[in-house]
Amino acid sequence: MDSLFSPSLQHWLDLAGIFVFAISGALLAVRRNFDVFGIAVLAEVTGLGGGLFRDVVIGAVPPAAFTDLGYFLTPLLAAFLVFFLHPEVERINKAVSVFDAAGLGLFCVTGTLKGHEYGLSLTSSVVMGLATAAGGGVLRDVLANEVPSLLRWDREVYAVPAIVGSSAVALLIHLDQVRPSTTVGAALLAFLLRLLALRYNWRAPRAWHRRSATVDAQATHGDAAREPENGGRQVGSG
Amino acid sequence: MDSLFSPSLQHWLDLAGIFVFAISGALLAVRRNFDVFGIAVLAEVTGLGGGLFRDVVIGAVPPAAFTDLGYFLTPLLAAFLVFFLHPEVERINKAVSVFDAAGLGLFCVTGTLKGHEYGLSLTSSVVMGLATAAGGGVLRDVLANEVPSLLRWDREVYAVPAIVGSSAVALLIHLDQVRPSTTVGAALLAFLLRLLALRYNWRAPRAWHRRSATVDAQATHGDAAREPENGGRQVGSG
Amino acid sequence: MDSLFSPSLQHWLDLAGIFVFAISGALLAVRRNFDVFGIAVLAEVTGLGGGLFRDVVIGAVPPAAFTDLGYFLTPLLAAFLVFFLHPEVERINKAVSVFDAAGLGLFCVTGTLKGHEYGLSLTSSVVMGLATAAGGGVLRDVLANEVPSLLRWDREVYAVPAIVGSSAVALLIHLDQVRPSTTVGAALLAFLLRLLALRYNWRAPRAWHRRSATVDAQATHGDAAREPENGGRQVGSG
After folding, report:
1. Chains touching chain C at 3 or more Cβ pairs under 8 angstroms?
2. What is the pTM of this model?
3. Nearest-CA distance from C157 to chain A in Å?
4. Closest by Cβ to C38, choosing from B59, B128, B151
5. What interface predicted TM-score (ipTM) does this complex get?
């Protein structure tokens, strides 16, 4: 399997993905007013959570997160940078989104590749790519006691770019065209799709036959009551 | 171990359990106003979460959820059906409960059987049956940012039917009477117990020596403030 | 590896750590008004969660929690005691903290030792010690739908005592001085540091460059809206 992809490049892509996801976790921790250890833990969980889930599920234990010191130190570096140098509060939301998009692109590629290396079928490898890309963010949101962005209707589509990127990698595997240039292309494809989704507010449909007006009003009211951090954001951007 | 239980029947029972749990996850996603991907993800997590936990813990990796395409596609089918054909909003609560009860019955049986196949003791197999049956629902509620139904006092008992069903299977194993008819009987027993609990509002006691009045008032007030989705339900049923 | 540490003593330390963590989980369940099964489940999850995470990650499956009946029964005993004999409501917060501190001390020691036994480096073993010590409490808070204490700025430092205790064990391993007396000393060190942190309200800093006044006000307001259980505590102590 080492011929599929240069181990060294995959390692650096992994570290880059961990770093940008960890930045997004650390920024959310700052927004939620966590202390320095909360920032570090949320950076570690966001950066390593998707890969940890992947490794535990495919049986690659102990996971890279616990055998490669670089994997552990990278989120600490991200937490350190955010702790001292994080952007102005009002810029945080946008920065979280862009870093998160970059992590999405990198992780759906490495997740799909590693899933296939460990014997999963192409379809399961695509699912594993999506799980690797989305897992860290879901854990981040669960630990911050928020409804995961991945699931929310009022957030731009997240799953589609990851599925497209993972499927592109599966196609490359099928065509025996896995090379640094092509896989980086797949990561960029997912990254750009996610940025476009953010730029143009692409949203996925909700269930049919909903009693729209009443339910939406209730839901909106409920979300406002449940998620006062939105209030913080509005103040921050005001 | 294949003589214990027809692999094909266990496979179909598994798929049926996954399907009904996935329906319950998809319906909750609709109630929480998630988009189509949120519906699919919550269906997958609810349908596969308990079995995934079981397989990771007993070392059956990669788990069936990632090696059997049917396991992955079944929740998607459930999400598809709910997306287009979900019942009227006011009927959702009841449907979630009944489907969830069916999944409970099926999963406590298959979880106990698989735990024992992988070498757990009878007691541990019962615990594994309960964890398999309750795991998907707990993950569903955690992702939807709700207190798991499993834990709440103001919900009908969920653990008792699962423990009874799992214990019945353990007894069957001990008596060497594991056959399709007897195991389906154990699943029906748990299913019916859960339906009875729902019908007659069976609730489990809370801790002794609580200062009932004050604390209950606080808790009720707190729950109302925390869980506006209850408001949505009341409107739906009005 | 059996020369590192008496298996019997490690087993008893593990059971003691499970017991005190389970007490903290059961007490939180009482405070959250869960029923008897919710109390038992939260006791099991809090007591076994950290070790379960550790065992799954290092590949020690099936985990001790599912092979050793004592590991399963200990949290039930804790739940039983709390159910019938839990202290007056107004004393609960303090009791949770002290029991939790004792579990922290014991688990960071056993987690570091077991991580090293399974081939992790000393650094990774320290991380595993922290994860073992903090994992159960994080799962407890996530299931109770609270922001994990571990992450919150307005809670006394939790990570520092665990890191100090785990690092002390790593030093003992490095110096080949792992004996019951020295490892119990490391557990006591972490326990006492945590108690001092609670006594003197040691808190960790938050990110630099925050717009303190506005953001704090927002955060306080938000937390008050999100976490009415604080209201319950104030009433309980009034």
Report:
1. A, B
2. 0.83
3. 8
4. B151
5. 0.80
